[in-house]
Amino acid sequence: MEDSHADQDVHADRRASAAARLGATGADGLVCFPGRNLQYLTGFDEAPAERHLFLVVPAADREGDATVTDPTFLVPSLYETQVRADTSVESVRTWDDGDDPTAAVRALLGDCGLREGRLLVDDTMWATFTQDLRTAAPEASWGLASEALGALRVRKDAAELDAMRAAAAAADRTVEDLRELGADAVGMTERELADWVADRLAAHGGSGTSFDTIVAAGPNGAKPHHGCGDREVRAGEPVVLDFGTRVDGYPSDQTRTLVFDGEPPAAYRRVHEAVREAQAAAVEAVEPGVTAGSIDRAARAVIESAGYGDAFVHRTGHGVGLDVHEEPYIVADSDRTLEPGMVFSVEPGVYLDGEFGCRIEDLVVVTDDGCERLNDTDRGWR
Ligand code: GLY
Ligand code: MN
Ligand code: MN
Q: Using CA atoms, how far apart are residues 153 and 23, in angstroms rounded to an integer?
């Protein structure tokens, strides 16, 4: 991913914040691997692969005789040009195919003074690489990157929020296209409709889909993470449509449950009304200083009083950032306090096995005095 100069400053600032937080959390260093943490710290956005590719971030202000104190990439030689061009990390080491990568890792950790002490590794690092790190630093103790980076990533800055607003708008406009499609959707398979959604998301400025699109027609909607298959959409049946796209690397995640033609069962009208009220009550409850658990309870209370409590089989929401599912999780009993800049989904649902499902999902950002909805399109079923 090509970065602008402004982005590079953002990434350098984030690396400095990460180095400072490492010390504050009692860690000596951090080892990142291709994934969202590395993207957050450098802008480098590659899928993980079998070659050793790490960013080592030593904690700020450590005492000792380390010769390397700056964040340093260790990359296969074929990536050198790319990381130098696309990131602002100045310290880059390479290893060649045919070399022993573990020896290169051992040398870098040694130069950073990190063959002992407490090292954090990316939460999603492949086990094969964590094993090599243990071999390279047998005296070290280990923790997870989220211990230090979680508090940084959970509050979104202005540029991150702008990207997420744009991604949410692309999803909103796609929902509006779906409403216009109306009866023409009847007879399309779930998979055809998912492809159609992908085209519309791209037409509205999105890049790809942020997760596998869910188009769950009729009884398939009772499986909250159904995906999509060969079932054809029928008149009068609710279809759960859960999808998102990315803008500047940041995703949207939105659900509407629509009936494309005809009249749904009476039970569906009652369920949809309960889910809609639950979603509104939960959004209404969002403000800084309240707990994530209180938002879950606000949604759950409405659905329970409508008689569908047992059919609301998941948490009310999840944080959204570079990862589509991340902190804060909006789950019963969470005492995590909401802070301005946190972005999460509010997505109550009711799932009636063999009949249908209904979920309504929007993203919200916590503001200084309440919350802003990132999605604002109609939540009705028609
Ligand atoms: N779609 C609901 C969840 O994964 O929490
Ligand atoms: Mn979703
Ligand atoms: Mn979601």
A: 17
What is the domain-level CATH number for residue 80?
3.40.350.10
Q: Is the CB of 315 under 6 A from ligand 1?
A: yes
Helices 101-111 and 127-136 pack at an angle, to 10 degrees, of 60
Q: How far is the CA of 317 from the centre of ligand 1 (A)?
A: 6
CA distance 278 to 281: 5
The answer to whether 294 and 259 are in contact (CB under 8 A) is no
User: Distance between CA 344 and CA 161 in Å, rounded?
Assistant: 12
* Cα–ligand 2 centroid distance for 38 (angstroms): 24
Which residue in this structure is represented by tokens 């914040």?
A: 17
Distance 147 CA to ligand 3 centre (A): 23
Residues facing residue 99 across a β-bridge: 97
Q: Is 318 in the pocket of ligand 1 (CB under 6 A)?
A: yes
Q: Is 224 in the pocket of ligand 1 (CB under 6 A)?
A: yes
User: Which atom, in ligand 1's list, is nearest to the CA of 225?
Assistant: 1
* Whether residue 196 sits in one domain with residue 143: no
Q: Is this prediction's pTM over 0.85?
A: yes
> What is residue 371's three-state secondary structure?
strand
What's the gap in Å between 243 CA and the centre of ligand 3?
Answer: 9
Alpha helices in 204-240 (DSSP H): none
Ligand nearest to the CA of 225: 1
User: Does 36 reside within a domain?
Assistant: yes
pLDDT in tens, the chain (382 residues): 444 445 448 999 999 999 999 999 999 999 999 999 999 999 999 999 999 999 999 999 888 889 999 999 999 999 999 999 999 999 999 999 999 999 999 999 999 999 999 999 999 999 999 999 999 999 999 999 999 999 999 999 999 999 999 999 999 999 999 999 999 999 999 999 999 999 999 999 999 999 999 999 999 999 999 999 999 999 999 999 999 999 999 999 999 999 999 999 999 999 999 999 999 999 999 999 999 999 999 999 999 999 999 999 999 999 999 999 999 999 999 999 999 999 999 999 999 999 999 999 999 999 999 999 999 999 999 9
Q: Which atom, in ligand 1's list, is nearest to the CA of 361?
A: 1
350 in a structural domain:
yes
Residues 143 and 187 in one domain: no
Ligand located closest to 363 CA: 3
